[in-house]
Amino acid sequence: MTPGNLLQHIRELSSDAYDGRLPGTPGEEKSVAYLISQIKAIGLQPGTPAGGFEQSVPLYGTRSGGTLAITR
Q1: CB neighbours of 52 closer than 8 A, spacing ≥ 6?
Q2: Measuring CA to CA, which residue among 60, 62, 55 is closest to residue 24?
Q3: Full-prediction pTM beyond 0.85?
Q4: What is the mean pLDDT of the chain?
């Protein structure tokens, strides 16, 4: 991999086409598909116990409900 090649992948994945890549969104699905296509293109083989390129993990999230006050 060359610096130019790496920059091409960074530009691709950071483009608006991937909608921010937030987990659980279509943008994440697009980015995972891109990564898998690139992995296959260089000839790597699947490595998960199920024989695929993806491994499921639980997704947890939290949101803060607090407020912020700044005084001077």
Answers
A1: 46
A2: 60
A3: no
A4: 90
Q: How many Cα atoms within 13 Å fall on the side-chain side of residue 1?
A: 11
Give me the residue label for tokens 């695929």: 52
Q: CA-based angle 34:37:43, to the nearest 5?
A: 145
Angle formed by the axes of helices 26-41 and 3-13, to 10°?
A: 160
Per-position DSSP letters for 19-59, written without gaps between them? GGG-TTSHHHHHHHHHHHHHHHHTTPPP-STTSSS------
Q: Quote the pLDDT of residue 33.
A: 96
